[in-house]
Design a protein that fits this description.
five-stranded antiparallel β-sheet; 7 strands; alpha+beta; two-stranded antiparallel sheet; elongated
């Protein structure tokens, strides 16, 4: 391979990687704005851990994390729920972010309302499990939530 070919490939890789990172940051900003500006009572409090993705405290007990998948140029977004003390953590859903700024091929990452709806669909099982537990006056741990048969949402 000659140097000019290598240079062209390196530029292509760098451009695509910068674009994906830009899409990821746009998604994060849109989701934060959608949650913080929502008129709906979601009981999310923003955490501050920008180096690892987004962090929301749910009912001041659980943590919802939104993270970019591991690996160079990964298009996968993972949604985790964990205990506030970090003792338990579980993957609840995943999504795909494409180069055109679409989540799961259908949601524009700049559309606050649709990004919020997409996010809430991904974490719906957490709310359902919490609702069930509170309705029956039972304590709830993440392991119990997932033992009820909740599986990560399909991509």
């Amino acid at each position: 391979m000659i140097l000019s070919e290598l240079s062209q490939k390196a530029e292509f890789i760098a451009d695509r990687h910068r674009s994906l990172q830009s899409q990821w940051h746009t998604y994060c900003n849109t989701l934060v704005q959608a949650i913080t500006l929502s008129k709906h009572k979601l009981h999310h409090a923003m955490g501050c851990e920008p180096q690892t993705g987004l962090c929301f405290f749910l009912f001041d007990h659980f943590v919802i994390r939104v993270e970019q998948g591991e690996g160079f140029h990964c298009h996968t977004i993972h949604y985790f729920v964990e205990s506030r003390d970090g003792g338990e953590r579980a993957l609840i859903a995943s999504a795909q972010l494409d180069q055109n700024g679409q989540l799961d091929g259908a949601v524009d990452i700049r559309d606050r309302e649709r990004v919020l709806e997409h996010y809430l669909n991904k974490i719906n099982g957490v709310y359902e499990g919490l609702y069930e537990a509170v309705q029956s006056d039972a304590p709830l741990r993440i392991s119990a939530l997932l033992a009820k048969g909740d599986k990560p949402a399909a991509v």
